[in-house]
Amino acid sequence: MMSFGYSADLLARYPQVVGGVILARGLRNGPTPEKLRDTYINEQQAVIQRIGKTPLSQLPSLAAWRAAFRGFGVEPTQYRSAAEALLRRLTKKGDIPCINTLVDIGNLVSIRYGLPVAVFDIQSITGKVTVHFADGSERYILLGADEVEHPEIGEVVFSDEQGLVIARRWCWRQSEPSAAQESTTSAIITIEAHHAEGRTDIEQALTELQELLRTYAAGDETRLTATILDASHPRITDEANEE
Q1: What is the dihedral sign for C-alpha 65, 67, 71, 72?
Q2: DSSP 68-105
Q3: Segments making up each domain of the chain, as ranges
Q4: What Gene3D superfamilies does this protein map onto (predicted)?
Q5: What are the b/e assignments for 64-85, b being 16+ CB within 10 Å?
Q6: Quick one: pLDDT at residue 240?
Q7: For the domain 2-232, what is the CATH superfamily, name and number?
Q8: Does residue 96 contact residue 180 with C-beta atoms inside 8 Å?
Q9: Other C-beta atoms lying within 10 Å of the C-beta of residue 239
Q10: Helix axis angle, 82-93 relative to 34-51, nearest 10°?
Q11: Taking 60 as the threshold, does the pLDDT of residue 214 lie above it?
């Protein structure tokens, strides 16, 4: 089973959040194909030109994420949302290196819309994944590390039914066990927004994510189940059995 959703408490505080979610099975990951690499590089340069000298803090999508972070007690200039961190690197360094097909698809759409896109390998996930306020008992392993940490009480996290955190500070950093590897075949893919035009952006981005996945990461058995989540539709579940 794959399942992703928002807790009632979180939606009560953030009723405006909109999430696009894809439950993906039968994916093929690996080194980034040349055509996708070229598309990604071209998008990076287009984004640099589009942003120009505008401070990232003034982009509506990023400003809304900064406000969301402050809402659960996190200083957004100390812990930047994944989308802002990507765009910050891009505008300062001039490029974002390729990692693998799934990660690059996510990053391409993330910089295009200025929204955090996450690709979570489900191999280490148990049961439902929920975005909620942490009670501090949950377990988290930072990407690239092996030491277990615990989130702060009241921090927004993604965690499974066993308390394994797959993303801290909402969309600051995902965990080591959930990172998309070349062996990834099943994943939960998310893109989220808080700004006024968020639903429109999420609808477009969700369509583009599915198109990119079908073009570059699909096999004969690929199945993509997608929806938009909000306060009136807080969860998506796919009961299909794993291969």
Answers
A1: positive
A2: HHHHTT--TTTS--HHHHHHHHHHHHS------HHHHH
A3: 2-232
A4: Phenylalanyl-trna Synthetase, Chain B, domain 3
A5: bbbebbeebebebeebbbbbbb
A6: 66
A7: Phenylalanyl-trna Synthetase, Chain B, domain 3 (3.50.40.10)
A8: no
A9: 7
A10: 90
A11: yes
Asked if 18 contacts 207 with a C-beta cutoff of 8 angstroms, the reply is no
Asked whether the predicted pLDDT for residue 18 surpasses 60, the reply is yes
Q: What is the pLDDT of residue 45?
A: 98
Tell me phi and psi for residue 9, to 5 degrees.
-65, -40
Helix (H) or strand (E) holding 39: helix 34-51
Strands 218-229 and 129-133: unpaired
Rounded CA gap, 239 and 237, in Å? Answer: 6
Nearest in space to 6 (alpha carbons), one of 159, 123, 196: 159
Cα radius of gyration (the chain): 17
Spatial distance between the Cα atoms of 177 and 192, rounded to a whole number of angstroms: 21
Q: Taking the CB of residue 28, how many other CB atoms lie within 10 A of it?
A: 17
pTM of the model: 0.96
